[in-house]
From TrEMBL:
<dbReference type="Pfam" id="PF07690">
    <property type="entry name" value="MFS_1"/>
</dbReference>
<feature type="domain" description="Major facilitator superfamily (MFS) profile">
    <location>
        <begin position="29"/>
        <end position="408"/>
    </location>
</feature>
<feature type="transmembrane region" description="Helical">
    <location>
        <begin position="119"/>
        <end position="140"/>
    </location>
</feature>
<feature type="transmembrane region" description="Helical">
    <location>
        <begin position="96"/>
        <end position="113"/>
    </location>
</feature>
<dbReference type="InterPro" id="IPR050189">
    <property type="entry name" value="MFS_Efflux_Transporters"/>
</dbReference>
<dbReference type="InterPro" id="IPR011701">
    <property type="entry name" value="MFS"/>
</dbReference>
<feature type="transmembrane region" description="Helical">
    <location>
        <begin position="56"/>
        <end position="75"/>
    </location>
</feature>
<keyword id="KW-0472">Membrane</keyword>
<feature type="transmembrane region" description="Helical">
    <location>
        <begin position="29"/>
        <end position="50"/>
    </location>
</feature>
<dbReference type="GO" id="GO:0022857">
    <property type="term" value="F:transmembrane transporter activity"/>
</dbReference>
<feature type="transmembrane region" description="Helical">
    <location>
        <begin position="299"/>
        <end position="317"/>
    </location>
</feature>
<feature type="transmembrane region" description="Helical">
    <location>
        <begin position="323"/>
        <end position="345"/>
    </location>
</feature>
<keyword id="KW-0812">Transmembrane</keyword>
<feature type="transmembrane region" description="Helical">
    <location>
        <begin position="233"/>
        <end position="250"/>
    </location>
</feature>
<keyword id="KW-1003">Cell membrane</keyword>
<feature type="transmembrane region" description="Helical">
    <location>
        <begin position="357"/>
        <end position="381"/>
    </location>
</feature>
<feature type="transmembrane region" description="Helical">
    <location>
        <begin position="152"/>
        <end position="171"/>
    </location>
</feature>
Length: 408
C-alpha cells in the first residue's frame, strides 16, 4: 500500500518550503519584488475601473476609451525590451528602482492636468514606467531561486493579483467619495515606500551587472533572436500571446460590461473585479509550484479548458451571484501567464535571459495591446456579448498548442 501523507506531513512540507525560500536573506528579496509587483500591476488595473469616470470627465466614447487602454498597454509592451536589456546591463535593483520612481512622477502628472491630450500622453508615460518593472522581476527571481523559478514567479505574480484585487476597489471608493484624481493619487506615497523597500532589501551583489565580456550589441541581440527559432519557444510564445490577448480584453472591459450591460452598481462591480484577481493570489503560486513538478503541458491542460467554458457562460449570466461564480471560473486563466513565462525564462542563457524574455513580452503585450481597441469597437456597434465568446475561441486555440508543446 502507498504511504498516506498526513496533515502533519503536509504542514511539515510547507514549513520546509517556506524556510527554503527565506534562507540566506532571500526572503527579503522576494518580499521587496512582490511588494513592487503588488503596486505596479495594481496601478495599471486601476484604469479599467476608472474608465466610466474618465469617459464622463473627458467625454470619451467606448472606442476612444478602448484606445486609451490600448496606448497604456502598447507603451507597457514596448518598454519590456528596455526592461530586459537594463536588467542584463545595469542589474535588476537599479531597473526596479527606475520603474518605481518614473511611475510615481507620471501619476503626479496624471492628476495635475485636465486636458484629454495630457491624459493620453501621461498614460503613455505611465505604461513605459510600469514596463521597466516587468522583466526584471522575473530574472531576479530566477537568479535568486534557480530551482524554484515557477514557485517564486508564481508568488510575485500572486502579489500582483493582490494589488489588482485591492487597489482598483479602493480607487473606486475614493473616486465616488472624493474625486477621480484621488483614485490615482493615493498610490503616490505607496510608490515612495516601495522604492525605499527595494533600496534596503535587494543587495547589489544579487542584482549587479551580468558578468559578461561584452555589453549588448547588435550581434548579441541577433544571437538572442536566433535562440527563439525553436519549437519550444515559438509554441510557448504563441501561448503567452493568446493569454495576453484574452487577459487584456477581459480585464479592460469587464467593469464597463457589468455596469452598462448587466446594470450592476460601480462599487459592486469593483468588488467583483477584485475577486477575479484575488483568485489569482491562490492560483498563480499553486500553478507555478505544480509546473515545477509536472511541467507545462499537464498543468495548462487543466487550467485552460475551465476558463474557456466560463467565458462562454459569462454573457448568459444574470445577477451578482452567478456572475461572481463565473468570474472565479475564468480566473484559472491567470495561471497560464505564470507557467508560460517560467517555461520561457529557463530556455535563455544567463547573459541574455532578460533581453530574451523582454523581446517575447514586448511581442505578446504589443499584440495584446491592440485588443481593447478592437473589443471596444465591436462593443460600440452592439457585439459586446459576442466579444467574450471570441475570447473563449482564442483559448480553444491555446489548448491545441498546449497539446503539441514539449513538456518541461
Amino acid at each position: 500500500m502507498g504511504r498516506i501523507q498526513t496533515p502533519v506531513g503536509h504542514s511539515s512540507t510547507i514549513r520546509k518550503e517556506v524556510r527554503t525560500l527565506r534562507d540566506d536573506g532571500r526572503g527579503k528579496i522576494l518580499f521587496a519584488v512582490s511588494a513592487g509587483s503588488f503596486l505596479i500591476v495594481g496601478v495599471q488595473m486601476i484604469y479599467p475601473v476608472m474608465l466610466p469616470e474618465l469617459r464622463v470627465a473627458y467625454g470619451l466614447n467606448l472606442g476612444t476609451a478602448g484606445l486609451l487602454l490600448t496606448l497604456l498597454w502598447a507603451a507597457n509592451a514596448i518598454g519590456q525590451i528596455p526592461s530586459g536589456i537594463l536588467a542584463d546591463e545595469i542589474g535588476e535593483k537599479r531597473t526596479l528602482l527606475l520603474s518605481v520612481v518614473l511611475s510615481a512622477v507620471t501619476i503626479v502628472l496624471i492628476v495635475s492636468f485636465e486636458s484629454s491630450a495630457a491624459l493620453f500622453a501621461s498614460t503613455v508615460l505611465l505604461g513605459a514606467g510600469l514596463a521597466l518593472f516587468g522583466v526584471a522581476r522575473y530574472t531576479i527571481m530566477y537568479e535568486t531561486y534557480p530551482d524554484r523559478a515557477g514557485t517564486t514567479i508564481g508568488i510575485v505574480l500572486a502579489a500582483a493579483d493582490a494589488g489588482q484585487s485591492l487597489l482598483p476597489p479602493l480607487a473606486s471608493v475614493l473616486t465616488v467619495v472624493v474625486a477621480w484624481q484621488l483614485g490615482f493619487g493615493f498610490t503616490i506615497p505607496i510608490f515612495i515606500l516601495i522604492a525605499v523597500t527595494i533600496w534596503l532589501y535587494i543587495p547589489r551583489e544579487v542584482s549587479s551587472e551580468k558578468q559578461s565580456s561584452e555589453h549588448m550589441s547588435l550581434s548579441r541581440f541577433a544571437e538572442t533572436l536566433s535562440m527563439m527559432y525553436t519549437k519550444r519557444v515559438i509554441f510557448a510564445t504563441t501561448i503567452f500571446v493568446i493569454y495576453v490577448c484574452v487577459w487584456v480584453s477581459f480585464t479592460s472591459f469587464y467593469p464597463t460590461y457589468l455596469i452598462e450591460s448587466k446594470n450592476i452598481p460601480q462599487t459592486t462591480t469593483a468588488i467583483l473585479f477584485g475577486s477575479f484577481f484575488a483568485a489569482g493570489v491562490v492560483i498563480k503560486p499553486l500553478s507555478g509550484a505544480i509546473y515545477d513538478r509536472v511541467g507545462i503541458r499537464r498543468t495548462l491542460m487543466v487550467l485552460a479548458p475551465i476558463s474557456a467554458l466560463a467565458l462562454i457562460a459569462f454573457p448568459l449570466a444574470e445577477g451578482v451571484l452567478p456572475i461572481a461564480v463565473i468570474t472565479l471560473l475564468v480566473a484559472p486563466l491567470l495561471g497560464s501567464g505564470t507557467i508560460a513565462q517560467s517555461y520561457l525564462i529557463e530556455i535563455f542563457t544567463h547573459d541574455v535571459r532578460g533581453t530574451g524574455l523582454g523581446i517575447i513580452r514586448t511581442c505578446g503585450l504589443l499584440i495584446g495591446s491592440t485588443t481593447p481597441a478592437i473589443f471596444g469597437f465591436f462593443a460600440e456597434i452592439g457585439y459586446f456579448d459576442e466579444g467574450f465568446l471570441a475570447l473563449a475561441l482564442l483559448i480553444g486555440t491555446m489548448i491545441t498548442l498546449i497539446m503539441l508543446l514539449p513538456s518541461k
